[in-house]
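S2.1 Query sequence (THUMP domain-containing protein)
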Amino acid sequence: MENNFNMVAKTLFGFEELLANELKQLGAQDLKIGVRNVSFVGDKGFMYKANLALRTAIKILKPIKTFRVLSEQDLYDQVYKMSWDKYMKPTGSLAIDSTVHSNVFTHSKYIALKTKDAIVDKFRDTTKERPNVDLRFPDLKINVHIDRQVCTISLDTSGESLHRRGYKTATNIAPINEVLAAGLVMLSGWDGQSDFMDPMCGSGTILAEAAMIACNIPPNLMRKEFAFERWQDWDVDLFETIEESLLKKTRDFHHKIIGYDKSPSAVSKAKANIKNAHLDEFITIKHEDFFKTQKAGEEKLHMVFNPPYGERLDLDMEAFYKDIGDTLKQGYPNTNAWFITSNLEALKHVGLRPSRKIKLFNAKLEARLVKYEMYEGSKKAKYQN
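Output structure tokens follow.
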């Protein structure tokens, strides 16, 4: 199709397969998995859909030009040659961000500046007017990516990172990023067919993402704005049609989603965020210390959580992780428990053997997502039955 074009969805390390799978289910074509990104082909409507519906994407870029660069002058000349009037008005505003992996170009801010100069000079030379730089609300957000001698210029279709869903107004000391939370829930295999629990729920992010996955609610419905809404070819009718078709695919959920936290302030923040997300009919949050709780009922329980880690909190990590293992062992039979930690040393004190370990990054910290399967009675009894 003539109206199709290439796009690149960026993600976190370890989520590439998840993102490719999400794109495939949405109907993307020609998928190629990279490191922290997946490239694909679609049209304008699909670009809108991807921004609204992808849970594990941080940003969606639309590459418009690729060329070789050997010097700063090359970069300036190539950017100057481009037809920028197709993308913005001379009186508009722009912002540029850049990533650089090269021996020749070492300073990404300088590359952004050089790109800006070329665009501004082009407009000034051809129209006698010049666009301004607006880092917060630009009409056009441009991404420059230099890998050795290859430079790719892309339009940023998303604007602010897609992890900013719009439902979080209150956060705690160490809030988990929404894309990370969604990815953990997806990697855990949560399908909405059982009760779900986050026993250390903080500001409620994992709970909100789990509820949206269970009900198939698009994660970015509440965002104030996407970058493409300021483009010259913005089609509000098409956008609303896409939004409506996604909303028709939501589904009912017949189980419970429960959050505990022992901090009263975390509980009130989580409740506020869940209410903002219009998910309070699915999620119950209680002021409880997980280590003093037991599972209610016989039904299967799916648990995903992000325990506090020593960087920001004053905890005896060994004792803390031992308590996690003891509580799971004694109080939570018939439970699949998953949690993420960057304290790989403390993990040894859980006292249970994980059935899975997945390497991820939580911000800059290398982490593991681990799974513990708690059986009804002993494992031995399970196999005898």
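The first strand starts at residue 5 and ends at 10. The chain has a mean pLDDT of 93.
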